């Protein structure tokens, strides 16, 4: 039995503005993970996960990106195309919440298969496997999900530019809360594009989000959690102006701000999904997580940003 693991990801700053050439910051989120376990079993290549169990070649078209990650990994390894092995995938990453689940699956699968066949998996090889799978899942991936679900450092990125790792040592904790509502990223992106076409002021909001992300990067590097919290809350106001928040997200964010958070905002595409709040210490993080659960959050997680 051989395992491969990957983490989820969080967009800290820059949602939606990144589509228009502004920077964004994303980070690995180790509180949630995917584990792929490979064992010798049966007479053909099989897989089991939350949404499918059976032969890999019979997987429905909707899961083509996972099938590709398996097949492409085996091809790169030089293994048989239909070996007598079983791949079991377990996940604590909620789907359709903007937390990198599709990329994380590809990362975990590639790591487990290369380890099973005792083959070295270079960073370049992993990148190729994950990005090719992400193209099937999302069409034109930025590479951010691939970098964050397989890495250990937050990244600063601008569309069509090299991804830049950020060495963060921030004395603060991030609390993440799942609203329980599926996000609607594509719908939100289309509506922002329409707003930009009709309202010149919307471009100013996009540029303001970019400037806030640049300042957030400096806060991460200089250990300025109070300033980062204020920036996060400002960013959420602009995201509200763009119409990508919703009453559920706004309600959780208000609760966080009323209970001592340094700042809070939505994360990801919006219109559902998750929110994030920055707090000073672990005790406060636990208290806020409990409060958000009492306020009907589906799940909460905590991550120290000083690691």
Question: How would you characterize this protein structure?
Answer:
With 307 residues, the protein is an alpha+beta fold. The protein is 43% helix and 23% strand. The protein is built from nine helices and eleven strands. The protein has helices at 64-77, 101-116, 123-138, 144-150, 185-198, 200-222, 225-241, 247-258, 282-294, and strands at residues 2-13, 24-40, 46-48, 53-55, 85-91, 155-157, 164-165, 173-178, 263-267, 274-279, 299-304. The strands form two sheets. Strands 1, 2, 3, 4, 5, 6 and 7 form a seven-stranded mixed sheet that branches. Helix 1 (64-77) packs antiparallel against helix 3 (123-138). The longest helix is centred in the C-terminal third of the chain and has 23 residues, at 200-222. The radius of gyration is 20 Å and the shape is globular. The mean pLDDT is 94.
Task: Outline the fold blueprint.
Elements: E1 2-13, E2 24-40, E3 46-48, E4 53-55, H1 64-77, E5 85-91, H2 101-116, H3 123-138, H4 144-150, E6 155-157, E7 164-165, E8 173-178, H5 185-198, H6 200-222, H7 225-241, H8 247-258, E9 263-267, E10 274-279, H9 282-294, E11 299-304
Parallel strand pairs: 3-5
Antiparallel strand pairs: 1-2, 2-5, 2-6, 3-4, 6-7, 8-10, 8-11, 9-10
Helix pairs in contact: 1-2, 1-3, 2-3, 2-4, 5-6, 6-7
């Amino acid at each position: 039995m051989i395992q491969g693991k990957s983490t989820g990801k969080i967009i800290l700053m820059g949602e939606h503005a990144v589509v228009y050439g502004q920077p964004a910051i994303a980070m690995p989120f180790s509180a949630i993970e995917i584990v792929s376990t490979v064992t010798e079993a049966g007479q053909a290549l099989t897989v089991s996960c939350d949404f499918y169990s059976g032969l890999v070649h019979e997987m429905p078209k909707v899961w083509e990106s996972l099938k590709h990650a398996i097949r492409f990994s085996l091809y790169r390894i030089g293994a048989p195309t239909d070996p007598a092995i079983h791949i079991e995938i377990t996940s604590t990453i909620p789907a359709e919440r903007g937390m990198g689940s599709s990329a994380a699956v590809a990362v975990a699968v590639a790591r487990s298969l290369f380890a099973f066949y005792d083959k070295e998996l270079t960073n370049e090889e992993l990148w190729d496997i994950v990005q090719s799978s992400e193209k099937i899942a999302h069409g034109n991936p930025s590479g951010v999900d691939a970098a964050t679900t397989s890495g250990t450092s937050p990244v600063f990125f601008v569309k069509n530019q090299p991804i830049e790792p950020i060495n963060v040592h921030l004395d603060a904790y991030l609390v993440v809360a799942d609203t329980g509502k599926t996000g609607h990223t594509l719908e939100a992106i289309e509506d922002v594009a329409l707003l930009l076409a009709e309202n010149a002021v919307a471009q100013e909001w996009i540029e303001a989000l970019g400037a806030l992300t640049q300042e957030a990067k400096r806060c991460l590097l200089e250990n300025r959690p109070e300033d980062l919290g204020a920036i996060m809350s400002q960013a959420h106001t602009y995201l509200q102006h763009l119409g990508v928040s919703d009453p559920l997200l706004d309600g959780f964010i208000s609760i966080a701000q009323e209970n001592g958070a340094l700042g809070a905002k939505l994360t990801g595409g919006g219109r559902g999904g998750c929110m994030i709040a920055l707090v000073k210490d672990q005790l406060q993080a636990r208290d806020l997580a409990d409060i958000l659960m009492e306020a009907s959050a589906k799940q909460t997680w905590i991550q120290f940003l000083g690691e």
